[in-house]
Automatic annotation (TrEMBL):
Annotated TM spans: none
Protein name, per record: HTH luxR-type domain-containing protein
Pfam families: GerE, HTH_77, NB-ARC
Domain HTH luxR-type: 869-934
Length: 939
């Protein structure tokens, strides 16, 4: 059922939340709390329907504000509502009334003929608005109006890159503020003027002042304007910045004069107020491309408006909405680029236009004869800005194209140093480029300044770099790639302990890191590519980009098959780790084993330790605990031989021992880790100690100690940022609540844990935590009288991950047997199969919203002894009987495989089938079952 839009009825808001209708009064704190997370509401009166939408001013750095829309006589009209805190009932209805009162342009023109005369303006200043109306600038207009009407803010400069719409905005402001200045508004275009001395001449001409000498012109203008209450609009000031002091003198001599300038750079005058004009706000890419919603996007609305001037029949439809949205993003919401692209629609459909937009610059050259020459192509506009740079600035501007997604000062200094072989004042150059609006500051909150180019500007800079010699191009890209290799390797040394601190610093460099990888790969430096791919192990892990990392390493390993090097061995080991985390165990074992063999061949003991540790962890995840212990013990012995301590290896071996049930040995190692961690101040080591001791306490049924230790482990892991382990601990803490009898508390914790697992984009990085959650919710459902739902949840958990903490096994088996007895084999099997087929998120959603099937009220299911048919063993295949005989004798999967001459994977398949038939979930339970029911008589 589709959820309706929030609506205002008088001063009450009606909206739906989790399927229930909610009401709150406009103007209350609840209203403002709701507005902070809302994006839209509607209101209807006698004039029709009005929609209020939350939009962002300019680029992503702009603040959020509300805007109201109303369709009248086939035209969509809009009005600025303001920021959230301004939305009182009186303000909303007032704006709504003003919007409803807007009449047609013809009516307004008719009224204008009979209106009082406007203040006279000079001949040169007649203000003609562009044929295209101004779109998406309501907030900017309101802010500029407010600034220019304040006596103390007498000079305002609208800055921004070429093509962002400065002139259009200035014309609109000039026309709108005409009544506010008693002596009028004078608009002077400086587009054709290149000499600073000619600025006063152009101004005099606009004002109707005649004088031949420069000093006489300045004096005449001052005399004319000294007592005037006037707004002077000077457009395109960037090419005559040297004339700025003349304007400052004029302002000092004329106390009632106000000046609005447009420029690609600031004028640096006393009292100058800078108004940065950003590109138009872009539509959200994460939601469906709904034409009705997209029409409210300023960038899309402008594109449609220009499109209809060239192709009147053009409409935004469900078929082309996605392409139009993508076009606006490709062009960065830059008004000039949108205008030039729309001019191509008579030749291209939106889909074809989008396909032709890479590269952008050739396509965005047209015959827009109504535009100034500098704006008839996007390249002309950028050439105009580029020519304002000095040679040193131009050289740095070329270099900026090698960065993808932005750069820091440190990064640019490194690349510039390698490129030139000499030290240059990069900070001063960046400041100048920022001042001239060719680059942008992308993260104002970051400790280290970060800058970026709009993609259209970056493409232009790339063409300039491509025009340099091939050797210079190679040096630039090589310097970029080498810097990011060094950055990644430097970070990888510390990633294990300060993951939470390093990830936010490296995440903005994601695109640069991948660009460096690609450069090394495509230019034959495979060893450097392997080094970079391996160094990014923790980066991919912390950012949930396991698949991306595995894909890159797979490509690089395929290109380096003949290599016998530490770089390849390390990459194989990391690739195996990434595959293991995604549950691709065969590939993980294959890569990990090859890496281990290569390290052995190279005699690299440190590499052998790492490879053994990764393989051991993979075996734990696969459920081969005995083999995991063997690998871990081998690594531990090598570590002792080398006389070193490796916390990661100790942690893996402790985990393997706990899963294998070797608690005493695990406890001894825990003491080693505790001692070393305290000595070294190792938070991760202490977190492992607490987790391990908590797990051992649970096995010993010391719930109080377990809870305290697990909470300490969780808090410490949160400090270092290991989310996968944190999720597992949260699941174990919920399990403790189940054992304490706090069923409803456990249920809430499990549901919150499930939400967190699914919020991480993929469950591949937390399979054990999610399976633990599903099993726990199954026990909760069983104890709350929903046995069928319990079985479905257990089936889903079994499909996802069969690994189980040792302390889980017995409680789970008890509940499983009791529910199976209650439901009977057929119902149990059917419900189990349903659970294996329904997506886990659907089952969890049903749990969260209480949408399970109604079941008969059943008291807490007490453990019972199930009836066993002696014919059960007759259902076993011959190979299953062989496997069970060896399993009962305590053989591991690998030992069974060797004795029966089959693969360990085949053994695992037979063991899984045996578990299902005997209704057990572990080797110990299967052994106990076989012995209790005299399996030997059925051999």
């Amino acid at each position: 059922m589709t959820q309706s839009s929030p609506r205002l009825f008088k001063d009450m808001l009606l909206y739906e939340q989790q399927g229930r209708v909610q009401l709150l009064r406009v103007g209350t704190q609840a209203w403002y709390d709701w507005l902070s997370s809302a994006s839209l509401f509607t209101i209807t009166n006698a004039a029709g329907s009005f929609t209020a939408r939350k939009e962002r001013a300019g680029s992503k750095r702009g603040g959020w504000y509300w805007k109201m829309y109303h369709r009248q006589q086939g035209k969509l009209r809009s009005a600025y509502l303001g920021k959230t805190e301004r939305l009182t009932w009186e303000h909303v209805t007032g704006v709504m009334q003003r919007l409803a009162d807007i009449r047609s342009l013809d009516d307004r023109k008719q009224e204008h003929r009979h209106a009082a005369p406007v203040p006279a303006i000079a001949h040169g200043s007649q203000i003609s608005l562009p044929l295209i109306s101004l779109i998406g600038r309501d907030q900017e207009i309101a802010q500029l109006e407010e600034m220019l009407c304040q006596q103390e803010k007498r000079i305002v400069t609208v800055t921004g890159m070429g093509g962002v719409g400065k002139t259009h905005l200035a014309l609109h402001i000039a026309r709108k503020l005409l009544p506010a200045f008693a002596d009028g508004v004078v608009f002077v275009s400086l587009e054709s003027i290149s000499e600073a001395d000619h600025v006063l001449v152009a101004l005099a001409r606009a004002l109707g002042v005649s004088a031949r000498e420069k000093l006489a012109i300045a004096a005449s203008i001052q005399t004319l304007l000294q007592q005037k209450h006037m707004l002077l609009v000077l457009d395109n000031f960037e090419q005559v910045v040297a004339a700025a002091p003349q304007i400052e003198k004029l302002l000092m001599a004329c106390p009632r004069l106000a000046v609005l300038t447009t420029s690609r750079m600031a004028l640096h005058l006393r009292g100058e107020q800078i108004f940065q004009l950003a590109p138009l706000a872009l539509p959200d890419l994460t939601t469906p491309a709904d034409p009705e919603i997209l029409l409210h996007s300023p960038a899309v609305a402008l594109f449609i408006q220009h499109a209809q001037t060239h192709l009147p029949s053009f409409q935004l439809t469900p078929a082309n909405a996605s392409s139009v949205r993508a076009i606006c993003h490709q062009l960065d919401g830059l008004p000039l680029a949108l205008e030039l692209a729309a001019a191509r629609l008579p030749l291209f459909s939106p889909e074809a236009l989008l396909a032709h937009l890479l590269p952008r610059l050739p396509l965005l050259a047209g015959s827009q004869q109504n535009l100034p020459t500098r704006q008839q192509t996007l390249r002309n506009t950028l050439d105009w800005s580029y020519q304002l740079l000095d040679p040193s600035e131009q050289r740095v501007f070329h270099l900026l194209s090698v960065f993808v997604g932005g750069w820091t000062l440190r990064a640019l200094e490194a690349v510039a140093q390698a490129f030139d072989g000499e030290h240059r004042d990069v900070l001063q150059t960046l400041t100048s480029l920022l001042d001239k609006n060719l680059i942008q500051r992308s993260d104002l909150q970051a400790t280290e300044p970060r800058f970026r180019l709009l993609e259209t500007v970056r493409e232009y800079a790339s063409t300039l770099l491509a025009a340099q010699s091939e050797s210079e191009q190679i040096v630039a890209h090589e310097a970029h790639a080498s810097f990011y290799l060094e950055l990644a390797e430097e970070a990888s040394v510390h990633f294990g302990d300060v993951l939470h601190l390093l990830l936010p610093c490296l995440e903005p460099e994601h695109a640069n890191l991948l660009a460096a990888l690609q450069w090394f790969q495509t230019h034959g430096n495979i060893n450097a590519a392997l080094r970079l791919g391996s160094a990014l192990e923790w980066f991919w892990a912390g950012g949930n980009a396991w698949g991306e990392g595995r894909w890159w390493l797979e490509q690089l390993l395929a290109q380096s098959q003949a290599e016998i090097s530490t770089e390849r061995a390390r990459a194989l080991t990391v690739a195996g780790k990434l595959a293991q985390t995604q549950g691709i165990y065969e590939q993980a074992i294959s890569w990990g084993s090859e890496g281990l063999a290569l390290f052995r061949q190279l005699g690299d003991n440190q590499g052998i330790l790492v490879a053994l540790g990764h393989l051991a962890y993979t075996e734990i995840d696969r459920g081969f605990y005995d083999h995991a212990v063997l690998l871990g013990e081998e690594a531990y012995a090598l570590e002792q031989q080398m006389g070193i301590y490796t916390r990661a290896l100790h942690c893996t071996l402790i985990r393997a021992l706990i899963f294998a049930g070797a608690y005493e040995r695990a406890a001894l190692l825990v003491e080693n880790v505790r001692s070393m961690s305290l000595r070294q101040g190792d938070l991760t080591g202490m977190a492992t100690v607490h987790f391990a001791l908590g797990a051992i306490a649970l096995v010993r049924k010391d719930l109080y100690a377990a809870q305290s230790l697990l909470q300490a482990a969780r808090n410490t892991y949160q400090a270092v940022g290991f989310m996968r382990i944190i999720l597992e601990i949260e699941g174990v803490l919920a399990f403790v609540d189940v054992q304490r009898g706090a069923i409803e508390t456990a249920r809430k914790k499990y549901l919150e844990l499930a939400r967190r697992c699914f919020s991480r984009e993929t469950t591949g990085d937390a399979p054990l935590a999610l399976a633990l959650t599903l099993r726990g919710l199954g026990i909760v459902a069983a104890r709350q009288g929903r046995p069928t739902e319990a079985v479905r949840l257990w089936g889903a958990a079994d499909r996802l991950n069969r690994n189980m903490f040792p302390f889980e096994r017995h409680p789970y088996e008890v509940e499983l047997k009791a529910v199976r007895t209650l439901l009977g084999k057929a119902t149990f099997a059917r419900s189990w199969d349903q659970g294996t087929q329904v997506p886990a998120d659907s089952l969890l959603s049903a749990q969260e919203h209480g949408m399970w099937e109604v079941e008969a009220e059943v008291a807490h299911i007490a453990p019972q002894s199930p009836e066993v048919s002696s014919s059960l063993f007759e259902t076993f295949t011959a190979r299953e009987i062989d496997v069970l005989q060896l399993l009962v004798r305590g053989k591991t999967d690998r030992q069974i495989a060797e004795q029966l001459v089959i693969s360990p994977r085949t053994v695992n398949t037979h063991v899984t089938s045996l578990y299902r038939k005997m209704d057990v979930t572990s080797r110990s339970a299967a052994t106990r079952y076989a012995l209790e029911h005299n399996f030997s008589t059925h051999e």
